[in-house]
Amino acid sequence: MPRRHNAQNSLGNLLRKLRRIAGKKQCEVAELLGVHRETVSRWENDRDKPSIDMLIEFANVVSARDDQLHELIMLERNVQTRFLPWNKMKPLMEQIAEDIAETPFPAYLLDYRGRFWVINEAVADMVNMPFEEIKCLLREYKRISYLDVVFDSRLPFKGKLENYDNVARQEVARYKYINMYRRHEKFYQNTLQDAKERFGPEDYRYFKSVWYKLDETMLHELLNGIRTNVTIRNGERKQFYWLHTELIFQLGRDLFTKLWYCPHDWQPVRSIPQPVVRLWDLVNIHDHFEGEWQP
Which residue range or ranges hold the HTH cro/C1-type domain (predicted)? Predict the structure, then answer.
């Protein structure tokens, strides 16, 4: 008998949620699937699991979207996200770092948890801080993520955001959306607890309120566009940017995202390579992400 899950994002809870959204009773779903009502009850209480074929039939019965079916299958198989071995990733990561160096405005590379891997010097200029401080943050602040940067008042970025509430909602939505199929994984289920340990009390309370206010419908609405309006304030001066995102599919499904800030008033100029900080130049990459590599 499969071990019962207590986590909110279990297979059984998702089956129950999709059935209720479809407005169907357990007995109705059971009849359409050709099984007993007790069988559906056992699935929803994580006392048993349907086969993949049955999951596909269930998704048809409740008119689930493709992404919801994908999540059901990920939960059934208990898939855990892992990076490719570093010797296979490194050549492409170095190409991406070169691309970010040649990007003529602030740009960086994040993984699916929002952790920084590459940052160019224009980011330091945007937030008006020395590039060496960026390197120190990346080296010393354990696995710094974009959620830290947006929500932690001790870091310099939050206080410079003019349209802070909108950016905060967008970035939590982005994190939730990218990890839609990973909600059963330990790191996702521990997101709030990790934030509580990393942020100050006020920052944590705000992060928690944003986290719970965003449902799936809002995620699609917030991320419907390909760019976000961001206003950075340095003293009396304000700079307006469009924040663009691009998934890097060559490294695995939505594992890495390149983000860049294009000024509203930017005019095309010849791109000149600028300095970048690469995480693998600062830390032992294998130890830094211990337990997150494919064998």
Answer: 15-69
- Give the Cα separation of 18 and 14 in Å (integer): 6
Structure tokens at 137: 């943050």
Q: In what order do the strands lie in the sheet with 237-247?
A: 227-234, 237-247, 256-263, 107-111, 116-120, 276-278
How far is the CA of 82 from the CAs of 109, 117, 290, 294, in angstroms? Answer: 17, 16, 10, 5
For the stretch 101-150, pLDDT in tens is: 999 899 999 999 999 999 999 999 898 889 999 998 888 776 789 999 99
Give pLDDT tens digits for 57-71: 999 999 988 878 888
Tokens of 184: 């059963």
CATH of the domain at 203: 3.30.450.180
262: amino acid identity, one letter: C
Which of 77, 107, 130 lies at the terminal end of a domain, its last residue?
A: 77
